[in-house]
Design brief:
The protein is of the alpha+beta class and about 200 residues long. About 35% of the residues lie in helices and about 25% in strands. The protein has a single domain (about 5-195), classed as tt1808, chain A. Strand 4 (about 115-120), helix 4 (about 130-145) and strand 5 (about 155-160) form a beta-alpha-beta unit.
């Protein structure tokens, strides 16, 4: 089954993962001030995306500009992929499209060593994206190992565009940060994403 078919419970069960829930897991990471360009872009785009009220609008008008800004902040030393086919192990159901993948490689034409699998939640419901995000994180973990890339932790983000939640996968343990991070504290959100992608 593709990533979109996984629920949070089915992904935890199928991949024999242990779940830890922790409030504010990433709250202590240093904040990163948004560039004037990102601040201006979001000032225009957020009301438009909220008014359109579709996942596609939120992905294009809010999420994409934020991720492009993260890439620029890191001097283009990471790569960003949107809507790519990420078929890692179809027999395990780890196939299909990922909304966004950030890779530690600066190569932009092929996916190498993804560290952050990001999905946009449907219908403004963050929880509806947990299963899909976790399955993509497991796929990233398997992909990294197959490529000989030792990356102990894979991070995931589920977002409605205006609210974000984060996951961390290390070995067979998943940590779900119960905190919902809002665009109202954009520097905190950017700080988390910069650490994840670095």
């Amino acid at each position: 089954m593709p990533y979109s078919k996984f629920t949070f419970e089915s992904a935890l069960q199928q991949f024999d993962l242990t779940l830890i829930e922790e409030l504010g897991r990433f709250d202590d990471l240093p904040a990163v001030a948004p560039s004037p360009l990102l601040a201006e872009t979001l000032e225009d785009n957020i009301p438009l995306a909220v008014a359109i009220a579709t996942e596609k609008a939120r992905s294009e008008l809010i999420v994409s500009p934020i991720l492009v800004a993260i890439r620029k902040h890191l001097h283009n030393q990471i790569s960003l992929f949107s809507g790519v086919d990420f078929n890692v192990d179809p027999e395990l159901g780890l196939s299909g499209f990922c909304d966004f993948i950030i890779s530690r490689s600066s190569l932009q034409t092929i996916v190498q060593a993804p560290v952050l699998a990001l999905v946009a939640a449907k219908n403004d419901n963050i929880k509806s994206g947990f299963g899909r995000c976790l399955a993509a994180m497991v796929a990233a973990q398997i992909f990294n190992q197959a490529q000989g890339n030792f990356i102990p932790k894979v991070y995931g983000a589920i977002t409605t565009g205006t609210l974000w939640q984060f996951l961390e996968l290390e070995a067979r343990t998943v940590v779900l940060d119960l905190e919902e991070y809002s665009l109202k504290n954009l520097p905190k959100l950017l700080g988390i994403l910069v650490v994840f992608a670095s």
